[in-house]
TrEMBL record:
PANTHER family per the UniProt record, alphabetical: RIBONUCLEASE D (PTHR47649)
Top-level taxonomic group: Bacteria
Domain HRDC: 233-313
Keyword Isomerase part of the UniProt annotation: no
Protein name per Swiss-Prot or TrEMBL: Ribonuclease D
Species: Luteimicrobium xylanilyticum
């Protein structure tokens, strides 16, 4: 599992949990040559049953979300640790798995990077999402393995720089263990889903994950700069935008995480101070490090260009237009009827989720509920509400649980 997933930090194993320290078949060698790759493809193609799959990235170290290691395990064949860097893609590896079900933990974290390598599953089982549907309070891989299988997985290498070469032996052991138990874990979770009558729900969720389109590019991604929300001046926002764009170009060129090139706090500090010269800039504590000083002319150039922009080229305070409803805190004044609907709908959905031992957000996305209450379909009927929710990405099992109760409750509101 990579940085940013739901894996737990490395807690000490609980007394009734047996630590798992070594992969059953030892630590596999990294597949990094054409010959080793062909052998892995042939052996995996000859295997049977579900396939455990995981991927490691270098988030926080490298630019973008490139995959630097792919772990694949088939119970009757063994585990393979594939380095994708020497290869154009891993299409043959994906093809070798055929229509086998891929078992992943937090699949949405890994599927986009695997698709970039031309690896696309025919079927998916997500052990993290299964745990959510079963109402588990802790859904990191370590926590779920401990609860279901009574084994302890160490997670201390989840946030490493997986672009490192060669990869240390301890990291490879960690990577192999991450797929060691996924298939047995799947069997237990599937049995529990079936017992609770949630197996079909899970199948719909997994298929939705598998078919999810790539996320569209963000509009004005620079607005996500941490701390920039406190700047209520268009000129200062222009400085944030200019520095963010200069940092992004520099990070892309150097293949480094943007935060390692220039922290967000430095961007905001410069936007607050509006330095006019390199000397002014480097007097700011956030620009005092050796690396930041060395590139200070680049940063000052971006600042100066922003300071020179005409007024009609400055970014707006509000950001790009959107069809999303306003923040809920403003509803009572702007649309009391919509506020009344939301006040009825939110506790209703929360109660349905509690009755079925689900997190509320896994029953119905909060954005879909807000939109339904802000601009309800007309006429407000079961078919109309079902179509509305379907258009916002709700699955049929979710619609079946919430649509009629929402119609009944909101018709009165």
């Amino acid at each position: 599992m990579t940085q940013g997933t739901t894996d737990d930090a490395a807690p000490a194993p609980e007394p009734d949990v047996t630590p798992l320290r070594e992969p059953a078949g030892g630590v596999p060698r990294v597949v990094a040559t054409p010959a080793a790759y062909r052998d892995a493809v042939e052996r995996l193609a000859a295997g049977t049953g579900p396939v455990a799959v995981d991927a490691e990235r270098a988030s926080g170290y490298r630019y973008g979300q490139r995959t630097y290691l792919v772990q694949v395990r088939r119970e009757d064949v063994g585990t393979f640790l594939v380095d994708p860097v020497p290869f154009e893609d891993l299409r043959e590896l994906g093809d070798a798995l055929g229509d086998a079900e891929w078992v992943l933990h937090a699949a949405t974290q890994d599927l986009p990077g695997l698709a970039d390598l031309a690896m696309r599953p025919a079927r998916v089982f997500d052990t993290e999402l299964a745990a959510r549907l079963l109402g588990y309070e802790r859904v990191g891989l370590g926590a779920v393995v401990a609860r279901v299988l009574g084994l302890g997985l160490a997670k201390e290498h989840s946030a490493q720089d997986w672009s490192t070469r060669p990869l240390p032996e301890d990291w490879l052991k960690y990577a192999a263990l991450d797929v060691e138990l996924l298939v047995p874990l799947r069997e237990h979770l599937l049995a529990e889903l079936t017992e609770q009558g949630k197996a079909d729900w899970a199948a719909q969720e997994f298929e939705s994950e598998r078919l999810a389109p790539p996320a569209p590019p963000r509009v004005d991604p620079w607005r996500r700069t941490s701390g920039s929300h406190a700047l209520r001046d268009r000129r200062r926002l222009a400085v944030v935008r200019g520095l963010w764009e200069a940092r992004d170009a520099n990070a892309r060129l150097r293949d480094l995480s943007p935060g390692r090139v220039l922290p967000d706090r430095a961007i905001v500090a410069a936007a607050q101070a509006l330095p006019r010269t390199v000397a002014d800039l480097t007097r700011l504590p956030e620009f005092a490090s050796k690396g930041t000083k060395r590139r200070a002319p680049v940063w000052q150039r971006a600042i100066s260009e922003a300071l020179a922009l005409p007024a009609d080229a400055l970014p707006s305070l509000r950001g790009p237009g959107t069809d999303a409803p306003p923040p809920a805190r403003a509803w009572a004044d702007r649309d009391p009827a919509a506020w009344a609907r939301l006040e009825v709908a939110r506790p209703l959905v929360a109660q349905i989720a509690e009755d079925h031992h689900l997190p509320t957000e896994n029953l119905l996305q909060p954005d879909a509920l807000r939109r339904l209450c802000w601009t309800p379909p007309e006429p407000f009927t079961l078919d109309g509400v079902a179509a509305f929710l379907r258009g916002r990405g709700a699955r049929e099992w979710q619609i079946g649980l919430v649509a009629q109760p929402l119609v009944d409750a909101l018709a009165g509101a």
